[in-house]
Each structure stands twice: as C-alpha cells, then as structure tokens.
User: Fold Protocatechuate 3,4-dioxygenase alpha subunit from Amycolatopsis thermophila.
Amino acid sequence: MTTPSQTVGPYLAIGLPWEDGPTVVPEGTPGAVWIRGVVTDGEGNPIPDAMIETWQADPRGRFDHPDDPRGRVPGFRGFGRCPTKPDGTYEILTLLPGAIPGENGAMQAPHIDVSVFARGLLNRVVTRIYFPENTEANAADPVLNSVPEERRGTLVADKTDDGYRFDVRLQGGAETVFFDV
Assistant:
C-alpha cells in the first residue's frame, strides 16, 4: 500500500524554524544587507505559512561546507531559513555573495539559491536571487541565460535603502522562474 501524497506545508512552523535562522550573519556584521520580500499565490494573495531557505557563497565565492576547502568567513553560515509572517513577508540578513565557478570553468554571477516550501506544493520549488549591480556578470551567467529574456526579471532583486527586495510569486502571469533540480 502506498502513502498518499501530502503537501510540504502548512506544518513548517512546527520544527523547521529556529531563532537565528533568518540571520546568515549576526546583526551588526559589516557589509550585511537585508533581503526582504513577500511570497504570494497565483492571485497575488500573501502566503502566511510558507518557508524560505537560502544557500549561498560568501563574498569571496566560498561555501561554508566541508567540501569547500578554501576556508570560510568567520560568523558567516551561508544558510538561512525564515518562515513567512501573516502578511506573507520574510527577511534574511546576509552578505552579498561572490561569483562561483560553474561548469567548464565558466563563472556564475553572484547569486543566492532559494528554496520555497508552502502549502499546496508537493515538493519545494527552487529559484535564484541575482543582483542588479552585477550587470556584466549577470549577462554572462549560464543559468540566467538559460531563462527566456522576458522572464529573467523575476530572478533579479530590486535595490532598497538597506538591502534588496525579492518577491516570490508561486503561480500566475508574473510567476517567479523556478528550476528543476
């Protein structure tokens, strides 16, 4: 007998969040920026019980992982997790990532990998956050270039006074681009 399919939410708040999950670096870290946004459904309604996870390289393009022997930035975890609030908003405090090597030696533009878990999804969806000031690197990024030009804007954050805004729309005409990983 098989087990029936279940969605990945709304039970995320039971054991997945932790107190400093949204702070990839401690508050007050020089160069730290906020990435804030809202997760919405296909009709633009906020999703109050979603979960955002981020994974990224440090500003030198290194990962806080045993498989990356190049060292790490003290206090930089590289991983963040933030449940959405009742209004669908989330926030992650981090450092801007550096470029990382890709396939065949091509460099990938600085980006943050994002997983979104929400009610109604059978699996997480995965996207990326790119940054508008990296014009040349973004133009050469092989992953970003695999996305139709008219949809790339859903992957580029907007600059704000204290960081960036990156909204995630799970369905509809302005749906965020998600990758099959």
